[in-house]
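Internal tracking record. Fields below are filled automatically when a chain is submitted to the structure queue. Please do not edit lines marked as system-generated. If the sequence contains nonstandard residues, flag them in the REMARKS field before resubmitting.
Queue: standard
Priority: normal
Entity type: single polypeptide chain
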Amino acid sequence: VVSSYQPIEYDWSPDGKWFVYAASDADSNRNVWIAPLDGSREPVNVSRHPDNERNPVWSPDGKMIAFTGRRMDNEVDICFVMLTKEEDETGSRDRTIERAESKMAKARGADKAKKGDEAKDKADSKTVAIDFDDIHERVRRVSSPGAEAGLFWSHDSKKLAFTSTIDGKRGTYTISPPASLKPALLSTRTGDQATWLAAGNQIVWLSGSVPGSLSATGSAQSYGFSVVQEIDRAARHRAAFDLCWRTMRDFYYDEALNNKNWDDIRRKYASVAGESLTSDELREVVHLMLGELNGSHLGFTIFERGSGFSRGGSPSPVTAHLGVRFDESHRGPGLKVRDVIPGGPAAKQKSRIESGETILAIDGRNVDPDCDLTGILNGPLDRDIRLTVVDAEDKSREVVLRPISYSTAGGLLYEAWIRRNRREVEEKSKGTLGYLHIRKMAMPEFYRFEQEIYAAGAGKDGLIIDVRENPGGMIADHLLTILCQPQHAITVGRGGEPGYPQDRMVYASWNKPIVVLCNQNSGSNAEIFSHAVKTLKRGQLVGVPTCGGVISTGSAPIMDVGIIRVPFRGWFVPEDGRDMELNGAVPHHVVWPEPGDLSAGIDRQLEKAIRVLGRDVAKEKKRPRPTLQKASGK
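SYSTEM-GENERATED OUTPUT FOLLOWS
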């Protein structure tokens, strides 16, 4: 009846003749549709919105459908639609009168007299009526703070329950569409796979992975249990392997599986999977199978299991970093400092160490190039380390410093590398060009990029954008919005210069020349960005071809064993249809580093980028500019 390259969420109408579903289109936009089970008409798009809708649920009385939808920014709200125009036009006053008449009839005992009529009405209510004309215009949004999810109806359709965090309180809330739309907290408990039963007027669900129930007044019960399970390890590993194999067969973006005989590959590894003694061995077998695809974004992660070892509340030991790097050619005594990491503990005034000085002892233990420093430096970071340091004049002193982690040291070295590159661009371009590096394609880095458009680009004629060593992410389109802003007008204030009001733009913009640096370690979304700059002719690429690993990936659970990555969507170059997978972005100027360049501080790619961008800036300056003519000058 319906198909999609991504999972479909659906629910049935009470009469079993229709179903409502949320499915993604070719642009990965997820909308809510209604379709007849017999295929008598085409599915109808109920939501018709450019943001994603999910979790459609049909009310038991057949009159409403509710779903969640992203609307402003990342706000996810509940939406609902009355399926007939008559129900949609019924106002709150009419509903109040209906409820009052029903109560009065019951009080007079008239419900018995109308038993036959009610039976007929009940039979009629099983047939769902839908007015499809302009149904999307009847969709109503329930605006509330938090992100609502996990919708389910009460058995009588009077309440819609959901999970949300409102005013800082996480729990299960209810509203009563269409009359009362203010969320009411039912319980601080939440659950999955919830159903609101008429029997006992209670909710049954899995809460914390344990079967449970919740009364209409918020009273919760849990029904925990324990069982003894005996597992045939070989059979379990074979089953997990087969599920991994089938998942890739059914969902990998290339139905030809990179022209591999997938059945032969299963036969090649299935018996080995069954012979795996541990989950780690199974993981390696699955990785061997995935390796046959020669694709990117593949992997199988085993669920962590308890090792039986507990550290209690004590911090985990790590290898401390002193904030210095040592001269490997020095043979002793002690460890000679090659350089001090800017911003590190050895660069601070109270614990300063200079390049060329020698550390003779750490915490009273003599050190030399041949000793294993982990035995001395391993431990909690939150401690002081005492160093015996000798300067160039052979004077000894004690330095006390608070160490950092290796990851922190890496971050400081990264910032030092940025400053060095920026300084080189500044000097060799005589102050005309700016430089910035994007470490990964994630929103924090995007916000930094937007800020550095001014910090690094202020007063510059061109900008070098470096995505070398960038593993990817998802911000390429955000970057392109900044770099490819259409110039449809020029504005000038009285006494001012030509420009354009920044507050009218989606983001800060940069319309001057750029050069993009990329290399073999630019991956995924960094490659998409590099391809885009070349395809859109926004600037020139300098460096070496990117790694050729571009696929959109999701994941799928494999029993209770692990999670497998599932590349489900390919990316292609619009000019010639080339798959970006296994086809990296090839720079306009290919420049490979020479052996020894890195240690010598030579960056041939950056040097080339400066020359290329300098020429592009010169061309841009020669481009004719229009003469602005005020209306009064005619």
